[in-house]
């Protein structure tokens, strides 16, 4: 079980890695919104998604994000994607008119439904790619600090954001350790005759308890020891503390933000255009190119 | 006259479950001493270590650390004086990476960022972990994690360091590593006071002073040669005696007396061969 | 021969073309009734090796034969019911306390036997017997394993393995983290099992344990087998340090005596009492 596969942070020296993590989270959310906006008809949607894909691919190349990991991630999601697409195919959403084919019992599959399903699939793939870009170019600690920064307004209502942040950082730090411990526990239980793969439901549940209970118990005793250690090192959750890791918003971040806002504005404009007028972007574009030459 | 850096007076402690842990413990430690604390599991050693750090509050008695009486009001002072390295390397590693962990104590002290970076790099170097600053705990060994814990303590400039069986979960290489590091620390700073809770009798034999705990009380307190002089007595409370003393004692029982001054294996070997 | 290890190799694959050869062409045999110690510094391959003895891991090359069972990558050669090998070879990992999960001590010890097919009443009987053999009285039967002390928990975990009456017991650092008395306690327990006929395979860093209990020693270094010999032959070697091993204090002392001019031959001295006897003899003859 190698946690390296699923978009884990790898410390490379690219511009994307060096961007402020708060900005990257903002970009993630903004781009997701862009992906889900309504652009009118299907041709427009696919055109827009196509352009977004190119942008994402470029970012992945600059950030040296592993395509292999990306494909592995998709592989893990294939079931859910197929399921969603199938639902979209079979359950009509909106007015459908073009029939693709009809089942013997009269049930019809429409082209629109198919395109809708494909669009859903496309969007999911892009979301996975965007999330992967974030997690493989940003260390979990920096992501945690960024979240803490976003939660700062909550401090006004005395919400303990630094405590939440410390809790999340600790949890992240212990994931590999707990995974290792889980493996050790499983090895010991297997040696006692437990088979984690086979058996009826009731047996499988019992097998899982042989893993979960010792793991939980060990988590509790770990937290006792951790608390003592933190106390011994002078930790006071509610006191002011300085931060070793700092988030610096620099020139490259400003430029990136500007670029991001411009591109987003463009897409939003397209969306507004499409919902008010019945335009087809591609035909419009080709017409414009045709007219200039 | 030197004021002892630690003064423990009639200390008693009991756990919530009413399990006795310490009963009327008193002793003093001078600045720069290397004290080893030995005793079977359950004798109270670990509890004593935690009380010294004021992680628990005494039931009775008091502890005076560097002239300051330990109490809720003086916690800040205590944290500036004493640090502890626990047994489990993972359960005291708080930062997500080596540098984050060394910085943890400094963050708690509100040290500014620039100074923190300096200190983290300096002390990581002192424990030979400067090439591992961005490594996560899952990527380094137990011995390396303990080195990081020590760096964290040194970076805070603490005067008393307590090792609560800090090497008992390490492999022999890790143990050697930490022992070497402790020796370096002691030569670099003669004023650093060490208290080591250990099962390693040979380590106790090489320390300045040995305190033997038994059944929640202090059984013996003094220099290694004194404390271990009666091998049978040591055995009666379930501890082993250092090899050298066992040899001397066994030979004495057979009528061969070896010079008491021999404290290392080679000097003992020499003395035995000279006898003939 | 009870266990035959034939030219096994094992490679850990970490992805991204990062691999680590944990075992490189290792071969040796274990006879029924042996008390075998496997030593070597961390990373030498010991933990990987023992996991093949009960089929948790399968060698990338070579095979491990345990009586009628064959542990091999080759599906044709591999035993069909490798699961039963785990009954024959009881495995006690380092810090076995963490495998405890049941509501009561007795239930936890019964768990293994039940998995291997025993009915409840029979499982209870063997569980009680196993607890007795680790010197835990009936007071412990209904207690929660999580209430016990570290040493007691470890004994419960060991009892859990013993209950299935394995013919071979493999232990990885059984004395890790214990105080000296508890160490002796556990080792004596293991010795008792050995005296009753169980084959013991023990991975340890503690050379005193090797010196005092093992009849045979396998030395691994850098994933390769360096030597298979007896403890005394190993420690009497003049340059044992080349295997990255610490030698017991007793043997260090023997060397020092020799170098200071001790006349008597100390080769046969392998325990404390004979050391004292030799010194006394030398003095009386000198």
- Overall geometry of chain B comes to globular
For the secondary structure, the number of strands of chain B is: 10
Task: Specify the overall morphology of chain A.
Answer: globular
The termini of chain B sit apart by 46 Å
* β-sheet strand percentage of chain B: 15-25%
**pLDDT averaged residue by residue of chain A:** 85
Tally of alpha and pi helices of chain A: 10
User: Can you summarize the main beta sheet of chain A?
Assistant: 2 strands, antiparallel
Topology as H/E string of chain A?
Answer: HHHHEEHHHHHH
Low-confidence stretches of chain A: 1-5
The share of residues in helices of chain A is 55-70%
3D architecture notes:
The complex is a heterotrimer of chains A (293), B (276) and C (286). Chain A is mainly alpha-helical. Helices cover 69% and strands 2% of the residues of chain A. Chain A is built from ten helices and two strands. In chain A, strand 1 and strand 2 form a beta hairpin. Chain B has 276 residues and is of the alpha/beta class. The mean pLDDT of chain B is 91. Chain C has a six-stranded mixed beta sheet with strand order 6-7-8-3-9-10, with helices on both faces. Chain C is globular and about 70 Å long. Classes of the chains: A mainly alpha (293), B alpha/beta (276), C alpha/beta (286). Chains in contact: A-B, A-C, B-C. Chains B and C meet through helix 10 and helix 11 of B and helix 6, helix 9 and helix 10 of C.
